[in-house]
From TrEMBL:
Name assigned to this protein: Ribulokinase
Organism superkingdom: Bacteria
Lineage: Bacteria, Bacillati, Actinomycetota, Actinomycetes, Streptosporangiales
InterPro entries: ATPase_NBD (IPR043129), Carb_kinase_FGGY (IPR000577), Carb_kinase_FGGY_CS (IPR018483), FGGY_C (IPR018485), FGGY_N (IPR018484), Ribulokinase (IPR005929)
UniProt KW Transferase keyword: yes
CDD domains assigned: ASKHA_NBD_FGGY_L-RBK
Membership in a protein family: Belongs to the FGGY kinase family.
One Pfam entry name: FGGY_C
Amino acid sequence: MAAFLALDLGTEGARAAVYGDQGALLGSGAEAYPTRFPRPGWAEQDPDDWWRASVSAARQALAAAGGPPIEGVAVATTASTVAVLDGRGRPLRPALLWMDGRAGEESELTARTGHPVLRYAGGSDAVEWLVPKAMWLARHEPETYRAAARIVEAVDYMVWRLTGRWAGSRMNAVCKSNYDPRGAGFPHDLYEQLGVADLAAKLPDEIVPVGDPVGPLAEPARAELGVTGTATVVSGGIDAHLSLLAIGGAQEGHVSIVCGTSNAFVTEIAEPVFPPTVWGPYPDALRTGRWLVEGGQVSAGSVLAWAGEKLIGRPRAEIGGLIAAATRVPPVEHGLIVLDYFMGNRTPLRDPRLRGAVLGLTLASTPEQVYRAAVEGVAYGTRQVVDSFTDGGVAVSEIFLSGGIQHNELWLQTTADVLGRPVHLVTGDNLTLRACSVLAATGSGRHASLAEAAAEYAPKVRTVEPVAAHAAAYQAGYAGYREATAATTGISHRLSGGRHER
C-alpha cells in the first residue's frame, strides 16, 4: 500500500499525517511552537522551532501509522511567514509571521508604483506579504538585510531542510512575491523601484509548480524524521490555498473557506477578471492554465473568542453554554450590530484602519445577545467577501467550509443563513494535510494529475441548509452592517491614528 507524509506549519504549531491509498488517514501527530509579540502589531517565530516541531510531529504520525515506507512528502505553511537566513541557512533574526503588520508604509509604497505585474494583486502588495517585509528589513535593519543570503517563505525553508535545494513554491512566488510565471519571472525592475534591487538574489534559486517533484528526501532529513522508502519531496504551498485540492478538486465555482482565527477564501477560475475587491487573479498559482482568486477576513473566530472570553468574561470551558444560550436568541431582534474589523479589513474593503464595534447596547442587553450579535457580525463579513466575488465576476456555485467553525454550530448555521445558500462542512479532517497528501501522491507518480488525485482523496462533507424563516431578518441585518461600516469608517480611521501600527 502506498503511503505519503504530509506536513503543515500552522500559526501555533506543526502537524503531520500519514495517508494511504484513496486518502485513508493512517496516523497523525502535532507539536507546538511559540510566537513572540515584541511590539504591538509585530509577530515573530524561530525557524529552528518549525523544524524541531515538524520532526516531532512526523515521528508521531509515522509511529501511529506503523512505520510504512513513504513514497512522497509535501509541506504547506502559513504565508507570508518570512525567514531571514545566512549562507548556511541559519536564522539571522526571528522570522516575520504572516500576521506581522509592521510593513504598512512599505505596502502603501507598492501601490504607488503602478507596475503592471501588480495587476495580478489588485494593484498593491498587502502588508503581510514577503516584498513589503523585505523592504521593511532593508529600511529598518539594513545590516541584517545586507547579511541575508536568503529571504524566503516558510514553505521554501522547509523544502530546503528536506532536500538541501532552494526550490520555491510557484504558488507562494506568484501570490506573495509578484512572480510572473507568464512573463519575466521575478520583477527585478519593481524590486529596484522599491529599494530592494537585490531581493531576487535572496529568493529561491528555482521556482517549482505545485505538485511537481523537487527531489529525494535528503539523508540528514531522512534520519531525523525516521522516514524509509523513496520519499520524493513535492512542491507545496500556502495552507489555505491548497485546501481547494482537498474538497474533491478545484472546480469552477467551488469556493473553499477555511474558518478559524481568520477566514481565508479561495477559488480557481478559467478566465481572469480584475475586480479591485479581491486578491488576484494569480496566474498558474495552483494549476497551470488557471487563475487563483483569494479573499479574506482578518478577524473571524478571534472575534468570537474575544466576545466570549474577554468581553463577556466566560472561561473557555463555559463557552459551550454561552453558545447554547445565544442559539435560543432570535436572530437580529436583539437590536445589536457587531462590526468584525478588529484587525482591519482584508477584502473587499482593503482597509487596515477599520476597527471593530458593538453598536446598539442598552442596560437590558444580555451576554447571549452580545455573543449572538458577534456571530452574526462575522457571518456578515463572510457574506461581504462572497458578494465581492460574485459582483466582480467570480463564479460561486458551491461553498465548502472547514476549520474551527465545525466546533461552533451557531456560527456554522448563521453563516448558511446569512449567505442564504447551502454550505458543505468538511468534518473531522485537516484539509491542509489532506491537500498535501494529494500533492505527494501526484508528485511521486502515483497519480497522473492533481485533478485525478484530488477526486480520489475527496473528504466526507455535511450539507447545512439555510433556515428560510430567518432570511428576511438577516437581509435587514446585513444591510445594517453595511450601513454601520460606512458610518463608522471616519471615526475608525481617527481612532487608529491614521496610520498602521509600528
